[in-house]
Structure to design on (363 residues):
């Protein structure tokens, strides 16, 4: 099947019932997306499909619409031009172990696309499906506010 | 013989949806007028109530707080959906976290315990006027016969709603094959459609308490 990921077109010889998570990691080598639980309970595997955050562990390859634009953490920004959320994550030193953070960042970026100025409560409503065993939630919330401010200035 | 058999689902298959079943999941067989007694209609209603109050149906027929519920044997204690989920006034999370973030639209079988279930339609709560989580048989019965609170449907409309949903591999059909460790709805989709029609033919009688 053909996939568009981070603006590039890939061919992947996979079964329809393979989760997108494993297509990305094992077939395309995009290992920024993480396996956490495999049952949509943790959010570590969050990517964007056509701008919407989804759990890639629940998205079967065969269910992708033709032409769907998939974005992973590797394509959200670039090392020399970080996305505002990635930049805020660095400035606030959000990550501790870091395992959940690509999912957190992808979910946060989707949140700010939808709601450029979220309140604490709105952040909690959107981000509560992304678990962090290190408990970095307070820094996550602060970084989202900072990224929102940066995006407003842009 | 005025028994009518309409395979509504096959019409839907022909009309439009790529996820539609190849065969009708249920058909509409309306009993002849006057053929169902009030007593039999009430018995049919009680079977309908067993279905609509089952966790597979009731968990997403919640009220104006827009929070889906987790209830039933596979969840243990009844509680609001985990992850602080609030589907918002859109009832599908458009203002918060879209249901489809985890409940990916797909007609593939639901086999993994505890995974987010999916169906062939976009996951969402039922409209708020269809709230019936925790309500009694009499309350839900009154609701389902009230066009203001049932989407403007008469007996046939209710039956068609069920069959059309099933043709899209939707929420109704999923209730009988939820996968994982989830308890399934009782009886069958066909029995449920038959009971709706028997109840309707009897004049939609409701229990009094």
């Amino acid at each position: 099947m053909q996939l568009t990921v981070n603006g590039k077109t890939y061919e992947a010889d996979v079964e329809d019932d393979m989760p997108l998570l494993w297509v990305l990691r094992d077939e395309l080598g995009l290992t920024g997306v993480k396996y956490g639980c495999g049952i949509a309970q943790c959010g570590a595997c969050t990517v964007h499909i056509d701008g919407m955050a989804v759990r890639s562990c629940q998205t079967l390859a065969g269910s992708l619409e033709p032409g769907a634009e998939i974005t992973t953490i590797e394509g959200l920004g670039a090392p020399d031009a970080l996305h505002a959320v990635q930049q805020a994550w660095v400035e606030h030193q959000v990550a501790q172990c870091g395992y959940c953070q690509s999912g957190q960042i992808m979910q946060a970026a989707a949140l700010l696309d939808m709601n450029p100025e979220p309140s604490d409560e709105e952040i909690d409503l959107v981000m509560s499906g992304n678990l962090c065993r290190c408990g970095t939630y307070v820094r996550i919330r602060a970084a989202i506010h900072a990224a929102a401010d940066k995006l407003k200035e842009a | 013989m005025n028994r009518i058999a309409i395979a509504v689902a096959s019409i839907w298959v022909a009309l439009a949806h790529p996820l539609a079943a190849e065969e009708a999941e249920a058909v509409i067989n309306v009993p002849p007028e006057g053929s169902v007694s009030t007593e039999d209609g009430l018995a049919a209603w009680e079977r309908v109530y067993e279905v609509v109050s089952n966790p597979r149906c009731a968990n997403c027929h919640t009220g104006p707080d827009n929070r889906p519920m987790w209830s039933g044997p596979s969840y243990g204690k009844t509680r609001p959906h985990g992850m602080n989920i609030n589907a918002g006034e859109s009832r599908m999370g458009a203002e918060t976290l879209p249901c489809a973030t985890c409940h990916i639209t797909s007609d593939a079988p639901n086999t993994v315990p505890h995974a987010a279930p999916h169906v062939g339609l976009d996951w969402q709560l039922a409209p708020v006027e269809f709230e019936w989580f925790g309500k009694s048989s009499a309350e839900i019965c009154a609701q389902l016969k009230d066009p203001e609170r049932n989407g403007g449907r008469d007996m046939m409309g209710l039956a068609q709603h069920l069959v059309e949903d099933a043709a899209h591999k939707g929420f109704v059909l999923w209730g009988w094959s939820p996968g994982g460790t989830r308890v399934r709805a009782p009886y069958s989709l066909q029995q449920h459609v038959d009971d709706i029609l028997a109840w309707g033919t009897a004049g939609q009688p409701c229990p009094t308490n």
User: Anything to note?
Assistant: Residues 93 and 101 of chain B are 9 Å apart (CA to CA). Confidence is low (pLDDT under 50) at residues 1-22 of chain B. Chain B touches chain A at residues 82-86, 96-98, 100-106, 108, 112-116, 118 (CB under 8 Å).
